[in-house]
Design brief:
Number of strands: 2
Largest sheet: 2 strands, antiparallel
Number of helices: 2
Shape: globular
Number of domains: 1
Radius of gyration: 13 Å
Strand order of the largest sheet: 1-2
Strand content: under 5%
């Protein structure tokens, strides 16, 4: 089983991979419509919005939580912890 390098989601079925391409290292939720991976800024915004929606955090707490989670993911290692 692969996990998305951008958000950490487990990917077990082809439809969970970007563009259904199992050779990709990122998921459908981290892909732009053209199949390329979202930027750090795009992913931070969408992950923070997901945290607000699913966990009820306020926007500032959700952004801080998203940054912390992203700092541990391969796509953002070494970068996320330095972003504001």
């Amino acid at each position: 089983m692969k996990s998305c390098i951008s958000c950490g989601m487990p990917m077990t079925r082809p439809e969970q991979f970007a563009m259904g391409d199992v050779s990709k290292d990122y998921c459908v939720h981290c892909a732009r419509p053209d199949g390329s991976m979202q930027s750090y800024e795009e992913k931070l915004l969408s992950m923070a919005a997901f945290i607000v929606k699913t966990q009820g955090f306020d926007e500032q707490a959700a952004a801080a939580s998203a940054k912390e989670m992203m700092a541990r993911l391969p796509a953002w290692k070494g970068r996320a912890s330095h972003e504001t």
